[in-house]
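Each field is set out underneath.
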Amino acid sequence: MYDPSYKKYSLGKYLIYQKINYCKQLNLRYFYPGYFVPGYSFFDYKLAIGKPALQFLPINSQHWLPIELFTPAFIPVRMMQEKLSLVQNILTNDGLDSRLVRYEYFDANLIPELREAALFDFPVMLFFPQQSVDGINPVVVFDVRDEQFHVLNCQPVWKPDHITHDVASYSTYLIKPALEIYASDQGGEHRHYCCFATDAITTTLFLNAVASVSLIKILNLRSDLRINRLGEFNKQILHRRRNFLTLPGNFELKR
């Protein structure tokens, strides 16, 4: 629990020092202080303790690196935005309209009651409103873990009570991936890789969407949400939107 009235006492730092001392008594090699979030000052106190030995874990490599090597290029959502922006520009030149949007409910899976629902959990996506068939929309995401583009058919599972009227965000529905209809090969930073992936994405969107929707109907995929609990979910999701969803990304730390 955090109380601004006690900020001057630096209780977070004190607690970390206590934990480090405890780890030393147990002859442990590492102490794990948790996450830090670039651009979010409330976690910065962790970066000032034991900095020469401090390491962070990039999501894409899963190898611990010295904190001195950290740059904004490691921020996952920034990597996603850069990759998707390049693809969006190529798609626009090819005459296919899309919107690069923030997905407001990307961390809904963290709500205990929703952990088994397998909801869509990417913070940004390319959205194609004109490609919707029977309420199912294809979206394009870039996954920093496998460094691949993915085209997913997503279905709405719940309409929140409050939505954000912002063209740069999507909050109309809580969505769930119904089917992956394309995944690119792993690629590098070069534009020709994105061009190649974009050609495949364009073909997938135009040729496979209807077939994918038919397969989804055959599989009869349904939401795991329960109607009588939507009110409580709405409260929890709104709370998370106010307190977490605008953050640019987080990283694990260890000492």
In short: The longest helix spans residues 76-93.
